[in-house]
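Extended Data, panel c. Modelled sequence:
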Amino acid sequence: MNKLSIAFIAALAAGMISGQASATVIDFVAEAGARGERGVADGTILNTAEMGGLNLKFSGGIGGDSSDFAYFNTATPNGSPQGLGTCSRLDSLNQCNPEYDDVVASNEWVEVGFVDGPFNVAALSFVGGGNASLDSSTGLIKITTSLNSIISVVTMSFAQATTHAFGLVDWIRFQFVGSEFVVASISDIPLPGALPLLLSGLAGLGFAARRKKA
């Protein structure tokens, strides 16, 4: 194997490392807990440590209209934070009024846009009423994504959505189908398990090339 080939493969591996090694967690539960319950106007861009230090744009709507607010929700009986929901009307303190209208319910949706560039959505987590996890639920959710203006729409169970690799997206929308919910978190992929094998293989190729030359 010549030096050019080895350099090309090494560059490919470096690209894999830089593109896939980090694991970013956008934690809406932590965001609600850290900064309190509140709604935000459509198009609001936020960047916090709890949400991975990314510039994220939020929208909420009913049907096809952007007439809801994205809502960071802590409204549970024990005050525990839930995550990202919606609200149709806010009071002067940006609190949901009525207070029970703070989840994604019938015909509603909430959307997260990735301002800095496409984000690799590989893991999701959801919470339902009473702060109970929906991550093993057979209830259905509709998820719409866009990449370079190409729209993809899929309806699946919450359990399926938590393990479905959506790939790179410019924005992702979560819509009610049959169960009220909030979005607990979005995350990308961790270091792939095959990468150490690839790197060890590259090292072996380099050693073989040097031995052959000698």
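Residues 3-21, 190-208 have pLDDT under 50 and may be disordered. This feature is highlighted in the accompanying rendering.
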